Amino acid sequence: MFVKLQLKGPLKKYGQSVEPFDCEIAAEPCTVRDLLQKLSIPTSSTSFVLIDGNKADLTATLRGGEMVVINPRVAGG
Amino acid sequence: MTYTGKILRVNLSTGKAQPEPLNEKWARDYLGGKGLSIKYLYEELEPGIDPLSEANKLILMTGPTTGTIVPNSGKLAVAAKSPATGTILDCSIGGYFAPELKYAGYDAVIIEGKAKTPVYLYIEDEKVELRSAGDLWGKGAHETEHIIAETLGDVITMVIGQAGENLLPMACISSELYRQAGRGGIGAVMGSKNLKAIAVRGTGGIKIPNIRKFSAALNKIKREDTMTDDNMWTYSDGTPMLVDLCHDSGILPTRNFQEGTFEDYKKINSDAVKGVLKAKKACFACPLGCSNYVEKGDTRVEGPEYETLALCGSNCAIGDIEAIIEFNRLCDDYCLDTISAGNSVAFAMELTEKGIYDFGIHFGEVDKYLEMPGLIARKEGVGAELAAGVRAMAEKYGGMDFAMQVKGLEMPGYEPRGSWAMGLAYGTADRGACHMRAWPTAVEAFGDIDPYTSEGKAKLVIGMQDDNSVKFSAIFCDFWALSTERMAEILSLLLEREVTATELTTIGERTYNLARLFNEREGFNRKDDYLPERIFSEKLPTGTTAGKLLPREEYEKMLTDYYQLRGWDENGIITEAKKKELHL
Question: Which chain B residues contact residue A12 at CB under 8 A?
C-alpha cells in the first residue's frame, strides 16, 4: 500500500527531492505515527498532519491512497 | 560583563548630547532591551503626556547579548509611549544597528525633546552630532538611507519615511532598507521630534569574560539547540510557511476577518515566495537566516513576511504575490506598518461593500489596493481616513464591531476564533493586539492543545508572555525556541555571575507587570482588554473552523483566570501584594 506524502519545511530532508512522493506503508493497521517512525521523523519535530486535506493526529489510521501532509513544529511568530 | 555601562542621552530641544552611566540596579532587575527601556520610560515620563509631544522619549536599547556571537542576538528594542494606543510601546528591529551601537560604546540611546528643524543624529563612537535633515525631509526610507550612506560612508541607519513625518499612528522605523520597528506608531515619535534618521558607526568591541569557555559553550549550544528542526523552518521557508498552516487550521484572516480560509492561498504561500526568491539573508550573529530576499522586476524586498501575506494578502482578498510584494515595498519605503496598513485597507473594503461608507475600494481590487500606501502615507484623499487606523475610522464612519483592533492597535494574522488563547494574548498584550507577546497559536491551532476551550489558557498565555519578556530583554530573537535554562546558561557566561532560570522567569514577570503598571497609570484596565465583537458573535464560515466563534462568556472566564493567576484584581489592576513581591 502507498500514500502520497508531502513533508513541509525542514522535514523535507527526511523525504525525497520531488514532492509529493509515493511512500509505501505497512498493511493495516498503520497509523501516522508508524509512518513517521518508518521515515525516522521525530514526532517532536512535527506539528499537525493533514490527511486528504483534513487535520488529523498521530493515531489516525492510513489505509493507502491518501494524500498525507506533515507539517513541522514552529516557534516564534 | 558585556554591558558598556554607558548610555547616550540626546536632547533635541537643546541640541546637547551627553553620556551617562547605565543604571546598574535597573540593568540587574530588567537586563536590557524591552524590560530596561520600559523601566526608563516608566521612571522618566510624566503620566498623561501626548505621545507626539516633546515630552515623549524615544529609547534605543541593546541587551547583554548584543554584539556578541550569541545566536539570534542581533535585535534592538525601540521604545516610547505609543501614539497609536497611548500604552507603553516597545518594538524590536533586526539587522546590524544594535551591535554597531554597542561597538560605538553605548548600551542605549535616550532621545528627548524636539528639534526646531529636521535633523538626523550621527553617532561615531564618542563623536555625536545633530546634522540638518532639511534635504532628507519628504523622502522615502530607501532614498534617505542611500543619501546618508553617500554622505557618511560605512554607517548603519534607522530612518523614517513620509508616514513618520506625517505623524501616522501606523508609521514605523526602517533600517537597512528592509527591516522595521513596525508597530504602534514608533516612526511617528521620531517624526514628532523632527528626527529623520539615526546613523551609527562603532569601532570598539565587547570584552567577553572567558572567550575560550564561551566559544566552546556556544558551539555546543548551536549544534544542540539552534540548528534543529524546531528552528530551521525559519531558514527553509521563513514565516511564509505560516500561510499554509493558518489556512489549513482555518485561522488565516480573510476579507477583514470574515473568513479563516482563503481560496487563493496557494498563490501567496511559501512556494509562491520561493518562486521569486533571490537569496536568504540574516541579522547579525544569526545562523538561521529567516529573511527571504525577493526580486520581481524592479521590485526588491526582504519579505513579504507572513503578517504581510495575511493582512495585505488574504485579508484584502489579494491572491497576487507580485501585488503583495509591491505593496510591501511601498509600505517599507513610506515606512508604514504592513499589519496596520493591511487592516485599514481591508476595513475600508468591507465598509464599502456593506454600503456603510464608500471608500471606493472593494476586496481584491489590485490597482486601487496598490494606490493605498501612497495615499495613506501622504494623507491624501481616502488615504487620510485610512491613515488614522481602524478604530478611528470606525468612530467616524461606523463598523466598530468589525474594526479588528485591541486598544487601537490592528490585529495580526491569527484568527482568535480558531485559537482562543491567541484571543487572550491579544487582549492582554501590553501594546494592543500583538502576536509577539505570546503566540499560543503554535501549540493550539498547530499543536496538541484544544483551541476551543478556556481551560488552562490563562496559564499558557502568562508563561509565554513572561518568557518572551525576558527573551526580548536579554536579547534573543523570537525565532530561536530556547528555554529559560538555556538563556540562563548563556547569560551566566556573559555576566560573570550565576544567572538562574528562576531569576529570569521573575525578570520576565516583573517586566510584564511593569508594562501593565505603565498602562494602568494611563487609565487602562479590564475594559480595554476585549476583542472586537465579531470574534464573540460571528461564526467563521469555512474550513476546519467553520461554525466556530469565541463565546464572550468563555473569554470572560479566561480573562478572570488570567487576572487571578497574575495577582491582579478583577478589574485588571495589579495588587499591592504583587507589586511588593516583584519589587515594583
Answer: 236
Question: Nearest-CA distance from B482 to chain A in Å?
Answer: 10
Q: Indicate if the pLDDT at residue A77 is higher than 60.
A: no
**In CATH, what number does B6-201 get?**
3.60.9.10
Q: Would you state the CATH architecture of domain B233-410?
A: Orthogonal Bundle (1.10)
Q: Is the pLDDT of residue B450 over 90?
A: yes
Q: Which of these, B184, B308, B311, B337, lies nearest to B257 by C-alpha position? A: B311
CB B200 within 8 A of CB B17: no
Do the chains contact at A75 and B447, CB–CB below 8 Å? no
Radius of gyration of chain B measured on its C-alpha atoms: 22
Instruction: Name the DSSP letter for residue B105.
Output: T
Angle between helices B141-152 and B321-334 (to 10 degrees): 50
pLDDT for position A25: 86
**For A73, which of B229, B235, B477 is closest by C-beta distance?**
B229
Domain A2-72 is classified in which CATH homologous superfamily?
Beta-grasp domain (3.10.20.30)
CA distance B358 to B343: 17
Q: What is the pLDDT of residue B229?
A: 82
* Inter-chain CB proximity A9 and B479 less than 8 Å: no
d(CA B97, CA B77): 11
Would the pTM count as exceeding 0.95? yes
Q: Please state the domain extents for chain B.
A: 6-201, 233-410, 416-581
Q: B416-581 architecture in CATH?
A: Orthogonal Bundle (1.10)
* Residue B210 main-chain phi, psi, to 5 deg: -135, 90
Residue in B249, B289, B191 with CA at minimum distance from that of residue B546: B249
Q: Region B109-120: what's the mean pLDDT?
A: 98
Whether the CB of B195 is below 8 Å from some CB of chain A: the reply is no
Average pLDDT over residues B282-300: 92
- What DSSP string runs through B362-409? -TT-HHHHHHHHHHHHHT-TTHHHHTT-HHHHHHHHS-GGG--EETTE
